[in-house]
Each structure stands twice: as structure tokens, then as C-alpha cells.
Design a protein that fits this description.
This protein is of the alpha/beta class. The protein is built from eleven helices and eight strands. The chain has a single domain, classed as Aldolase class I (TIM Barrel), CATH 3.20.20.70. It is about 40% helix and about 15% strand. It is globular and about 45 Å long. Bound molecules: phosphoenolpyruvate.
């Protein structure tokens, strides 16, 4: 019922030229995908990426968006600026932004609401640190990130949630399929109680954290996992394509 969504997060990798070349390499490999495919590229790569993606089945995503429509926010980028280039998705609240750039649940919330009202689909990242998991605080952290970060969203099924345990991002340490499924199941229950049960059934929840060609099929076979947010493995066309083709039988 929920269409899987595999999104690459290039982070701060690839110049515009390198990015366009990577897209050219990915395009033929995923042309027959049974899922939504997205590449979230650095902001300055967006024009070249938009050009390279023309006529393909791959959607364009950004990695951040400011909450104001315009104004004195040096270095920031507005939703309209992204939309002009055909950007459809935007990652919001990635743990690296929370860790290094002072992103909070409050700013995540403001960015998410701005993206939605501009017609962008936010990919809102949530997840616990290793310390929080080992301290038994995972559910408490997720509760707060959902209650505060997603406050005021009219239709929660219009966003994509990325569950990314911080301890699994870029570390090679993947959550087991069972761990990811259980936690995403918890997130769905929480969304049902904060928003509505029907919307919780509709909202797509990705797993992110060292997902790769070798573990994608087992993660994607889990009933609660609707997709992946892929960092490192999205930088190589064959690896990313293998994840996109996680299961030809498809969910
Ligand atoms: C990410 O950047 O969202 C991510 C999950 O990275 P990686 O796949 O490299 O762990």
C-alpha cells in the first residue's frame, strides 16, 4: 500500500560536474525501478542535477531549506529557490545538521512547515544517539522529535520520515532489520496517537544508517520499513542501483 522510496543523500560530496556524471550513470540502472527514487544533492549542484535528471524517473531533492520565504538570512536557501529548479523533496533535520549546525526540533518544525506550504515533500530525519539508546531513552527521544518537530502538520502523510539511529550513520554499523522494524513500528504508533491512525498507515518511514547493497533487501523485507535514506552507498551508481532494486517482487 505504501510505495517504497529510496533516496540518496550525497551530503557534501560531488561538484556539479561530478554530480551530473553520477546521475548519468545512475539513470539507466534505475529506469525500471518499482519504487520512488530520489537524489538529494548539495544546493550548488541543483541546476546541473536538474538538467541531468530531465526525462528520468529520478526526483530531485535538496538537503536543507530555510523557513522564511526570503530576507536577511545570509547563506540560506528558500523553498521557492528550490522549486524553481524542480526540486521535489528536501531533507530536514539530518543528524549532521542537528550535531554541527545547531538544528533543533523547533527549527526542524519551522523548516518542515515552510517546505510543506511551498509544496515540497520534507524528508524529516529523527533518531537517537548511541548514548540515548544505551540509556533506554530511544522512545523518549523519538516522542520529543515527533511531538516538537512535526507539530502543526495538517496531513502527516505528506511528509516522509527517515528513522536514522545516529550510531548507524556513516559508521558501517547498521541497525539489524528487526531493530529497525521495531523502532519504525514504534514511530508509526506514535504518529497514530499524535496525528491519526489512518495517516500513520499512509506515512512512509524510511530507515537510514549504513544501508547498502548487501543489507537493503533484508531491511526492505520488513513490514514497517518503506524505504531508505542512503548516504555513502548513494555515491556509487551500481551500489545505489542495487539498493533501488532491493526486491524485484516489490512491496
Ligand atoms: C545519511 O546520510 O542519511 C546516512 C544514512 O548515511 P550512511 O548511509 O552513510 O550511513
Amino acid at each position: 500500500m505504501r510505495r517504497p522510496i529510496i533516496a540518496g543523500n550525497w551530503k557534501m560530496n560531488n561538484t556539479a560536474k561530478e554530480g551530473a556524471a553520477l546521475i548519468e550513470a545512475i539513470k539507466p540502472l534505475v529506469a525500471d525501478a518499482n519504487c520512488d527514487v530520489v537524489v538529494c544533492v548539495p544546493a550548488i549542484d541543483i541546476p546541473a542535477a536538474a538538467e541531468a535528471l530531465k526525462g528520468s524517473n529520478i526526483a530531485l531533492g535538496a538537503q536543507n531549506v530555510h523557513f522564511a520565504p526570503k530576507g536577511a538570512y545570509t547563506g540560506e536557501i528558500s523553498a521557492d529557490m528550490l522549486k524553481e529548479y524542480g526540486v521535489e523533496y528536501v531533507i530536514i533535520g539530518h543528524s549532521e545538521r542537528r550535531q554541527y549546525f545547531g538544528e533543533t526540533d523547533e527549527t526542524v518544525n519551522k523548516r518542515t512547515l515552510a517546505a510543506l506550504s511551498a509544496g515540497l515533500t520534507p524528508i524529516v530525519c529523527i533518531g537517537e544517539t548511541l548514548e540515548e539508546r544505551e540509556g533506554g531513552k530511544t522512545e523518549q527521544v523519538l516522542d520529543r522529535q515527533i511531538e516538537e518537530g512535526m507539530k502543526g502538520i495538517d496531513d502527516i502523510s505528506k511528509i516522509v520520515i527517515a528513522y536514522e539511529p545516529v550510531w548507524a550513520i556513516g559508521t558501517g554499523r547498521t541497525a539489524t532489520a528487526e531493530q529497525a522494524n521495531e523502532t519504525i513500528g514504534y514511530i508509526r504508533k506514535k504518529v497514530a496517537s499524535v496525528f491519526c491512525p489512518k495517516c500513520a498507515e499512509k506515512v512512509r518511514i524510511q530507515y537510514g544508517g549504513s544501508m547498502n547493497a548487501g543489507n537493503a533487501a533484508s531491511l526492505m523485507a520488513m513490514p514497517e520499513i518503506d524505504g531508505g535514506l542512503i548516504g555513502g552507498a548513494s555515491l556509487k551508481a551500481p551500489d545505489f542501483a542495487a539498493i533501488v532494486h532491493f526486491d524485484r517482487e516489490g512491496k
